[in-house]
C-alpha cells in the first residue's frame, strides 16, 4: 500500500513528538516545550495541518475550568480503550463502574464523515527552578491536529459534535460531589485548588425527611419550577438562583433537608466554612469557582461570623469602662485570627454583581436562632423562602415510623399523637427510640420506649413550668416589697437630753 505525503508526515510527526515527550519531559521538563515547537512548526509547514489546543485552565487561571476540556475528556474516554496504551481509571456511581480516560502522552485518531483528525493528551511540567512545599501543577491540554483543507468542517461541525457527545457522556457518568473550602493559607498561588471534595452519597430524599407534607410538596414544586426557569430569570433580569433559610431547634432535620434538595435536583453541594475565609476578596474567589447546578450551604450562620444585627449594634452607655477596655484588648489580640468577612461582603456574595458569575444555584442558610440574624441578610430576594423545622408532630412521626419500623399504623399511634401535641421533642430524639436496640427488636418495643420517653419529658416540662411560675411569683414579691419600702416613711430620729 502506497502512503501519501500527508500520511508519511503524520507518522514522522508522531514519532518525533512522542520521542520528545518521553525523554524531554522526564529528564529536562523545563526545555520540553522549546524542543517540541520547532519540530511541530517544521512538519506543519510541509504538512499543511492545523492544530487547536484546549487547555484545562485557560491562561493558567484555575478559578474557572475549561468546559470544553471536560467535554473533550469525556468524548475521548469513549474512544480510548481501543487505541491508547496508557489509560487513567476512576470508579464512579458508588464504585459500580469504571471510567477510562486518556493519560498524558497518548494519542487517538478519530473521524467523522470521512474527515480524519488526531487527538493528543499533553501534560507540561511547570518551568520553575524554585523548590516549594507545594509544587506548581502541570499544564494539561488536549490538542487536535487535522489537514488545513478541512478547517471549516472541523470548526463548524466536528468540534460541535465532540462537545455535544462529551456533555451527554458526562451527564451519564456524573459523580456528584460534596465540596468544602480549603483554608486560604493553603492558596499558595493563583493556580491552587480552592476546594477539596468527597463523593456525595447522602441517602436522604423527600420521601424520608420528616417535615410537614404540605411544606414538602411546596418545596418540590418550587424546585421543579426553578430548574426549568432559565429563560424566565433572564427575562426578568435576575440571576438564576434561589435562597432558602432553614431555621429551628437543633435536631429538627435541617441537614437532612439540604441533602434531600441536592438529591432531588441532582446538584453538587458546596459547604462553605466562613471562619476559614479571611476576607471578602477570598469569598468572591470561592464564589467564582463554584460550578452551576450546585447547592451552596452555610450552616449555623449565626455562629459562623458576627453577622447578628451588625447594622443596629451600639455600645451600652452603662457598661463598665474597665470591662470595655478588657474586651478591646482581647479583640485586638484575636484580630489576626478572625475572619474579616463582613455583612456587606456576604450580601454581595448572595445577590450582588458577583452572584451572576454562575447560574442554576440554590443558596441555603441554616440557623437555630433566626431572630439573631440581621434582617438585611434574610430578606426576601436573598433568602426567598423561610422554612421552619420545628419539633416532631404526628404527621412527621408517621413518616419516621414508615422509614424506621416499616409500619403505617399501630394501636399505640393515638397515645403517641396526644403526647406529641403536649411535648416538645425533636425528630432526632424520636428516631433514637424508634431504632431497634436489639437484632430481634420489634415495633411494639420501640413505640413503648418512645411513649415512656414522652411521658418523662411531659413531667419534666410540667416541673419546669412550675419552677418558672414560682420564679416569676418570687420576682413579683421581691418587687412589691421593694416598692413598699420606698413608700414607707423613714423613722424619725429622737435625741435624749441629760437631766
From TrEMBL:
Glycoprotein in keyword set: no
Entry-linked SMART domains: AAA
Name of this chain's protein: AAA+ ATPase domain-containing protein
Family: Belongs to the AAA ATPase family. BCS1 subfamily.
Region (Disordered): 315-337, 464-499
UniProt cross-references to Pfam families, sorted A to Z: AAA, AAA_assoc, AAA_lid_At3g28540
Domain of life according to the entry: Eukaryota
GO terms assigned for molecular function: ATP binding; ATP hydrolysis activity
GO biological process: response to stress
Biased composition (Basic and acidic residues): 325-337, 464-482
Alphabetic keyword roster: ATP-binding, Hydrolase, Magnesium, Nucleotide-binding, Signal
Known catalytic reactions: ATP + H2O = ADP + phosphate + H(+)
Cofactor(s) needed for function: Mg(2+)
InterPro entries cross-referenced by the UniProt entry: AAA+_ATPase, AAA_N_dom, At3g28540-like_C, ATPase_AAA_core, ATPase_AAA_CS, Mitochondrial_chaperone_BCS1, P-loop_NTPase
Amino-acid biosynthesis in keyword set: no
Signal peptide: 1-26
Domain called AAA+ ATPase: residue spans: 240-393
Amino acid at each position: 500500500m502506497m502512503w501519501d505525503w500527508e500520511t508519511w508526515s503524520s507518522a514522522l510527526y508522531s514519532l518525533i513528538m512522542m520521542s520528545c515527550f518521553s525523554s524531554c519531559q522526564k529528564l529536562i521538563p523545563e526545555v520540553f516545550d522549546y524542543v517540541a515547537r520547532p519540530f511541530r512548526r517544521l512538519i506543519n509547514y510541509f504538512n499543511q495541518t492545523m492544530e487547536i489546543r484546549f487547555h484545562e485552565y485557560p491562561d493558567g487561571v484555575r478559578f474557572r475550568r475549561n468546559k470544553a476540556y471536560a467535554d473533550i475528556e469525556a468524548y475521548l474516554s469513549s474512544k480510548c480503550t481501543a487505541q491508547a496504551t496508557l489509560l487513567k481509571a476512576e470508579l464512579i456511581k458508588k464504585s459500580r463502574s469504571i471510567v477510562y480516560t486518556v493519560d498524558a502522552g497518548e494519542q487517538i485518531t478519530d473521524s467523522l464523515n470521512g474527515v480524519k483528525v488526531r487527538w493528543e493528551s499533553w501534560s507540561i511540567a511547570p518551568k520553575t527552578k524554585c523548590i516549594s512545599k507545594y509544587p506548581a501543577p502541570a499544564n494539561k491540554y488536549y490538542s487536535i491536529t487535522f489537514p488545513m483543507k478541512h478547517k471549516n468542517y472541523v470548526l463548524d461541525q466536528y468540534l460541535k459534535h465532540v462537545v455535544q457527545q462529551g456533555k451527554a457522556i458526562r451527564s451519564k457518568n456524573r459523580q456528584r460531589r460534596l465540596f468544602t473550602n480549603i483554608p486560604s493559607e493553603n492558596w499558595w498561588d493563583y493556580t491552587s485548588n480552592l476546594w477539596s471534595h468527597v463523593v456525595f452519597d447522602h441517602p436522604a430524599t423527600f420521601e424520608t425527611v420528616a417535615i410537614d407534607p404540605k411544606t414538602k410538596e411546596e418545596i418540590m414544586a418550587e424546585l421543579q419550577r426553578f430548574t426549568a426557569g432559565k429563560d424566565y430569570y433572564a427575562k426578568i433580569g435576575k440571576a438564576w438562583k434561589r435562597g432558602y433559610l432553614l431555621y429551628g431547634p437543633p435536631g429538627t432535620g435541617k441537614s437532612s433537608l439540604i441533602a434531600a434538595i441536592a438529591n432531588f435536583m441532582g446538584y453538587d453541594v458546596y459547604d462553605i466554612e466562613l471562619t476559614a475565609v479571611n476576607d471578602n476578596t477570598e469569598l468572591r474567589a470561592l464564589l467564582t469557582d463554584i460550578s452551576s447546578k450546585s447547592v451552596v450551604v452555610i450552616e449555623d450562620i449565626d455562629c459562623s461570623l458576627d453577622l447578628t444585627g451588625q447594622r443596629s449594634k451600639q455600645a451600652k452607655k452603662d457598661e463598665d469602662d474597665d470591662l470595655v477596655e478588657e474586651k478591646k484588648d482581647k479583640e485586638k489580640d484575636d484580630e489576626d485570627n478572625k475572619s474579616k468577612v463582613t455583612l456587606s461582603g456576604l450580601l454581595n456574595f448572595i445577590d450582588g454583581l458577583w452572584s451572576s458569575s454562575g447560574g442554576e444555584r440554590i443558596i441555603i442558610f441554616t440557623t437555630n436562632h433566626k431572630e439573631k440574624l440581621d434582617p438585611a441578610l434574610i430578606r426576601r430576594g436573598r433568602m426567598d423562602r423561610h422554612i421552619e423545622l420545628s419539633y416532631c408532630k404526628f404527621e412527621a412521626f408517621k413518616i419516621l415510623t414508615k422509614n424506621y419500623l416499616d409500619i403505617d399504623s399501630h394501636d399505640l399511634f393515638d397515645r403517641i399523637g396526644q403526647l406529641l401535641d403536649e411535648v416538645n421533642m425533636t425528630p432526632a430524639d424520636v428516631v433514637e427510640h424508634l431504632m431497634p436496640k436489639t437484632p430481634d427488636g420489634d415495633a411494639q418495643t420501640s413505640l413503648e420506649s418512645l411513649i415512656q420517653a414522652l411521658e418523662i419529658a411531659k413531667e419534666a416540662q410540667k416541673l419546669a413550668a412550675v419552677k418558672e411560675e414560682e420564679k416569676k411569683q418570687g420576682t413579683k414579691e421581691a418587687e412589691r416589697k421593694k416598692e413598699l419600702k420606698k413608700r414607707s416613711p423613714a423613722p424619725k430620729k429622737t435625741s435624749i437630753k441629760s437631766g
